[in-house]
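User: Round two. Same drill as before: sequence, then structure, for each protein.

Assistant: Same drill it is. First protein:
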Amino acid sequence: MPGVRSFPDRAAMGAAAAADIAEELRSRLSAQGAVRVIFAAAPSQSDMLDRLVAAPGVDWTRVTAFHMDEYIGLAADDPARFANWLDRAIFTRLPFAEVHRIDPEADPATYAKLLAEAPIDVVCLGIGQNGHLAFNDPPVADLDDPEDVKIVELDRTCRQQQVDDGAFPTFADVPTHAVTLTIPRLLNATRLFCVVPGAAKRQAVEQALHAPISAADPATALRTHPDVTLYLDAEADPRG
């Protein structure tokens, strides 16, 4: 079962998650030459990322960054592209050793090869309103997926969430397909930090913690990982 930490608001949640992630990075960097981290791109991560950028004592020049999903069909300079969102949120704000951005026009196997070059130490992720992890929506999620990176069709709930989050003006503007890291690829990391604020996520959190583990609710797969912590604000915490 994931460890669960709950906070009165998003700011406190983000600060605590960032502090824990920074401590994990400092610890790993003291014991190994480099660290590899996968980041989620979503407004739910903004508070944590802002605090992580400001965290002291992390040698970012020894950290390689990846991200976990990307829309297909948006212009390279579209601000809604996840690589561009993460550039604004963290990638261009820190001196990373390398940043590997998903090219949605490339063969997904190319990105899979980059991920497989060495172990992934940390994943910073969230949970979608439909329980998705990255863009592994219930209709396409596979908890035993043989692939590491693949092209998927986004379900309606997922696409509507992008509108609700303010990333797109209308449902029709949201791309129908995306590239995503698969659930086994994400869970292959050593440590997972899952940041989930907001009342709209409360049911998804409840399901992730208590529903049967299955592809019908992809976030339930977090319960199969030995080292994952869930960070909630009061609105997202179904226990409060």
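Second protein:
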Amino acid sequence: MPTPLANIPVHVITGFLGSGKSTLIRRLIERKPEGERWAVLINEFGRVGIDQALVDGRDDVAVKALPGGCLCCQLATVLHAALVDLLRRERPDRLLIEPSGLGHPAGLLELLQGEAFAGVLSLRETIAVLDPRRLDDPRAREHATFRDQLALADGIVLTMTDRMPPGAPERAREALAAWLPGERWVEAAPHGRLAPGRVLDAGPHRTSGSATRPTPHRVAASSPGPWLDLEARRPAPGRPVRERGEALGQASLGWRWSPDEVFARAALLHCLDGLPAALRVKGVFRVEDGWIAVNRVAGHEPPSASEWRRDSRLELIGPPGALPGAEALEAELDACIL
């Protein structure tokens, strides 16, 4: 009989859309202690499951995706079952959870500290990942979920600092200290790199500072979304699978293509460059010289190499009126296939 699971460290890494959560997790995995087996539970607002593709690819790290809504409300009914299944199947030494960028942490933290996982999980310091430029954006500062992600965190990781002028991290620390009550550590992570000990050696999550879920999340919880089984709808050559979703004031549009289809890199990137800069754009594609990952936040960041091989995927997230026409964009993308 297997040894009962006990006191598995759990690290919740929150952050608003495009803050760099997946990059931070990927960098942590690169420096994972030898001999440890990790499990990573990734929740995405979009319905295609891109973040799973961005961190997948190691035998000692099991990645479970929960796409199609917010972990704390729309997918709350399946979260418990997904966690139980992941723990029993993988028996990890450590668990990392990445909620959606629009996800409110309150419900997740309640579950992890509740009776169902008492003695099995040990919730460590919760981390909020922050692009400091968001502090200058009134739409972000006025967003209840954005504020609560920071307020509920034990520590805040400042990303994108390698793209900012000198002194930006210090100004962000001062702004956060003036804006948020309580104490929390704040550290910069240029290129998504944070000292692993800051996460892996963290103490327990504090029990104070809880927040009530904002009204949009409570409304979404009353009409939970379905469990999305991506394997049940596998794309065939010439027949991509299209997914759409809308909730919490944002919309998603995405596709999956057969792994047998190869995109022309130059034509594909030209097509993606034509998308509105305000959209969140994530994807993995098979191109003529391998597989690439695209991960853009308000800009045209270059692609990187990807270990993903299951299928090509693209996800766009933005306000409902900002998304392009699905049929026209799909035709453009199909024209990029060799």
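The CA atoms of residues 128 and 150 lie 6 Å apart.

User: Perfect.
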